[in-house]
Design a protein that fits this description.
Layout lengths: L12 H14 L12 H8 L3 H13 L3 E4 L3 E4 L16 E3 L4 E3 L1
Antiparallel strand pairs: 1-2, 3-4
Helix pairs in contact: 1-3, 2-3
Keywords: DNA-binding, Transcription, Transcription regulation
Pfam families: GntR
InterPro entries: Bact_HTH_transcr_reg, Tscrpt_reg_HTH_GntR, WH-like_DNA-bd_sf, WH_DNA-bd_sf
C-alpha cells in the first residue's frame, strides 16, 4: 500500500505521516493489537526516508497510540489502555498467534 505525503503545507513530514497513521487507527483500519509495518516498510509505503518513518513512529508512541516491544515490533494500543505519556506500562505480553496486546 502506498501513501503520498502532502508537502505543500508548512508541517514536518513525520508529523503529517503520524497524523495519517493516527487517522487510520481512529477509523479502525488499524485496530488494537495490530502490528504497524516495520519502519523500513513504512518509509517505502509513505515514500519518505527511514529517519522520517522512525520519527513518525516515535511521535505515535509519544501520543500513546502505539507501543514498541524490542525484537517484536510496534503495535496499536487499546484506547482504554493509553496513558499518553509515550509509555504504556499496562502491556505485559503479546499473544503470538494474533498479535493481541494484553495487560
Amino acid at each position: 500500500m502506498s501513501f503520498k505525503i502532502e508537502t505543500s503545507t508548512p508541517a514536518y513530514i513525520y508529523e503529517t505521516m503520524a497524523d495519517h497513521i493516527e487517522a487510520r487507527i481512529m477509523s479502525g483500519e488499524l485496530r488494537p493489537g495490530d502490528p504497524l509495518p516495520a519502519e523500513r516498510k513504512l518509509a517505502e509505503d509513505y515514500e519518505v526516508s527511514l529517519g522520517t518513518a522512525r520519527r513518525a513512529t516515535e511521535a505515535l508512541r509519544h501520543r500513546g497510540l502505539v507501543v514498541t516491544l524490542r525484537s517484536k515490533g510496534t503495535f496499536v494500543v487499546d484506547a482504554n489502555r493509553r496513558d499518553h505519556s509515550g509509555v504504556n506500562a499496562t502491556v505485559h505480553h503479546i499473544t503470538p498467534d494474533r498479535g493481541e496486546l494484553h495487560g
